[in-house]
């Protein structure tokens, strides 16, 4: 695909990357330097086309808070969620160094203060970094337990006035049912907020979705494993589902 066909249609973008995107072969274990580099190379090409890019990172490849809190009395859910937030900072550090190794300017901001390794999240500071053409990596979720990194992505996208929230997943969009369970599941190209709520479609958790709906923040759900998927998404050419 030519560079001309990948001309961005969005000025400021919030990209939500799950922890699995950093894992080995997309699996939820550890950090793969090869996978991280492939993502970083796409992000570099995106910002070179003039896009202001913020990235919210998950931590599921290292630790999921739910795995410690579900049905156990030894670790409280709040503690488990904080452990998950720390895992997102680890992914953020890996992405930051990888991006800088290929010549990108970055800033890693965390909602959980960790002054030795990253900046605290401050909205105006994050916006200033974007205006200075730095890739802003947002870790630590919202800094609060009991909410997901999807909620962090919706909040940050809303705070920073993003044109769209890109939700990178392992599937090609939103389906009428789980495509792995139902062979007759239908993929949607476009959806309204009302249709998502009416049919209880799984775009993101309800709290995150309601933030996007209230702010009229577009959501694009797409498969990050497809070739040049992130670049195509920002150019409006992704194979996915657009919610608006």
TrEMBL record:
Recorded GO MF terms: ATP binding; UMP kinase activity
EC no. given is: 2.7.4.22
Q: Give the GO cellular component terms, alphabetically.
A: cytoplasm
Q: What class of enzyme is it?
A: transferase
Q: How does its record describe regulation of its activity?
A: Inhibited by UTP.
Q: Catalytic activity, per the record?
A: UMP + ATP = UDP + ADP
Q: Where in the cell is it found?
A: Cytoplasm
One Pfam family name from the record? AA_kinase
Q: Which domain of life is it from?
A: Bacteria
Question: Where would you find the membrane-spanning parts of this chain?
Answer: none
Q: Give the residues the record marks as binding ATP.
A: 16-19, 60, 64, 169, 175, 178
Signal peptide from the UniProt entry: none
- State the UniProt keywords alphabetically: ATP-binding, Cytoplasm, Kinase, Nucleotide-binding, Pyrimidine biosynthesis, Transferase
Name the pathway: Pyrimidine metabolism; CTP biosynthesis via de novo pathway; UDP from UMP (UMPK route): step 1/1
Q: Give the Aspartate/glutamate/uridylate kinase domain ranges.
A: 12-223
Which BP terms does GO give this entry? Answer: 'de novo' CTP biosynthetic process; UDP biosynthetic process
Query: Binding residues for UMP, per the UniProt record?
Result: 59, 81, 142-149
Matches recorded under Gene3D superfamilies: Acetylglutamate kinase-like
Would you identify the family this protein belongs to, as annotated?
Belongs to the UMP kinase family.
- General function of this protein: Catalyzes the reversible phosphorylation of UMP to UDP.
* Subunit structure and binding partners: Homohexamer.
Q: Return the protein name.
A: Uridylate kinase
């Amino acid at each position: 695909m030519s560079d001309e066909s990948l001309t961005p249609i969005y000025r400021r973008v919030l990209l939500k990357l799950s922890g699995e995107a950093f894992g080995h072969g997309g699996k939820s274990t550890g950090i793969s330097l090869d996978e991280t580099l492939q993502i970083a190379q796409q992000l570099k090409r995106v910002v070179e086309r003039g896009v202001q890019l913020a990235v919210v990172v998950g931590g599921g490849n290292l630790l999921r808070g739910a795995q410690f809190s579900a049905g156990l009395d030894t670790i409280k859910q709040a503690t488990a969620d904080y452990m998950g937030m720390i895992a997102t900072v680890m992914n953020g550090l890996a992405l930051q160094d990888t991006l800088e190794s290929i010549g990108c300017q970055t800033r890693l901001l965390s909602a959980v203060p960790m002054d030795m390794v990253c900046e605290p999240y401050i909205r105006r500071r994050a916006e200033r970094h974007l205006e200075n053409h730095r890739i802003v990596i947002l870790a630590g979720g919202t800094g609060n337990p009991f909410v997901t990194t999807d909620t962090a992505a919706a909040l940050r996208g809303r705070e920073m006035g993003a044109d769209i929230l890109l939700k990178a997943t392992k599937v090609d969009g939103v389906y009428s049912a789980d495509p792995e369970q139902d062979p007759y599941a239908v993929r949607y190209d476009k959806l309204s907020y009302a249709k998502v709520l009416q049919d209880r479609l799984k775009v993101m958790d309800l709290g995150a979705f309601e933030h996007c709906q209230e702010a009229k923040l577009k959501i694009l759900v797409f498969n990050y494993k497809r070739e040049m998927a992130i670049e195509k998404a920002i150019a409006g050419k992704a194979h996915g589902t657009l919610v608006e």
